[in-house]
Design brief:
The chain is an alpha/beta fold. It contains nine helices and seven strands. The chain has one domain: Rossmann fold. Helix 7 links the parallel strand 5 and strand 6.
Length: 272
């Protein structure tokens, strides 16, 4: 990409772990589009991922932070403004983790303490991030905040477990905080509901390959991959989407609008 849509813009990208992460691709595309940014992830994730390679590749400073800690978020935002030389133009929230999924606890046998932890990591961290940025006046006028979500927030995907409720809460925070941030500083807040994507986290969900193939056949344009999602995020960070806010935006090849695709039934779907 030579469009330099983000030339001169400063950002923070949460959640890059390795080159399968959507956040990793977002960082690469933002770098190509001319942006400067800091990278962050939980301290434990930094020990297992390859994010240092991404930091070197994009010339970015890596700042460890627990996204559930208000103190860590305050330090992250303050240091990012110092490193980047001013207020932040864009933020990507790409964070999600379920202990119940990891420990193979089914939805009807959930450990509710783990569920609360899931909500804190996967959704409440989004509100904590925005609240901290709001009070620090960290976001520049007309900035853009994007969080990654999934259609399980609206429809039942049994093996997605309580992550479905986490994503529904995440999307609600985007609408509610989007109002307050829009009135105060013209800051946009949106969620991107991405196709099932081959990431380290996503591929760990039971039956992921089968569902990935199903979604790919159901969608008229096929599944959107991580790189295409990153392109969409760049557009949302850019000045071309200044009036798009408080939206849940489906980036899924049309999957969210489909009822049934004849191709899944062995039928010819072209009526031309």
């Amino acid at each position: 990409m030579d469009h330099q849509l983000l030339a001169g813009k400063k950002g923070i990208i949460f959640g890059a772990l390795d080159d399968q992460s959507i956040a990793w691709h977002v960082a690469e595309k933002c770098h190509q589009a001319g942006a400067a940014f800091t990278l962050t992830n939980a301290p434990v994730a930094l020990r297992f991922g390859k994010i240092q390679e991404l930091a070197e590749k994009t010339g970015s400073e890596l700042i460890p932070a627990d996204a559930t800690s208000m103190d860590d978020l305050k330090e992250l935002l303050s240091r990012s403004m110092d490193v980047l030389g001013g207020q932040i133009d864009f933020v990507l929230h790409s964070i999600g983790m379920s202990l119940n999924v990891r420990k193979k606890r089914g939805y009807t046998d959930i450990n509710h303490d783990w569920m609360l932890k899931t909500f804190d990591i996967s959704a409440i961290s989004f509100h904590k991030l925005m609240q901290t940025a709001y009070h620090l006046d960290a976001m520049a006028e007309g900035g853009s905040i994007v969080a990654l979500t999934y259609i399980a927030a609206q429809r039942v995907f049994p093996d997605y477990n309580e992550m479905a409720e986490s994503k529904a809460l995440l999307e609600s925070f985007a609408r509610s905080f989007g109002y307050h941030y829009g009135v105060k500083k013209g800051v946009r807040v949106n969620t991107v509901s991405q196709s099932p994507t081959w990431t380290t986290a996503g591929s760990g969900v039971k039956g992921f390959k089968e569902f990935y193939d199903y979604a790919d056949q159901m969608s008229p344009l096929g599944n959107a991959d991580a790189g295409e999602c990153a392109d969409y995020c760049v557009a949302l960070f850019s000045d071309l989407t200044r009036k798009v806010t408080m939206q849940n935006l489906f980036h899924d090849g049309g999957f969210s609008s489909m009822g049934i695709n004849p191709a899944l039934m062995g039928m010819d779907g072209d009526d031309g």
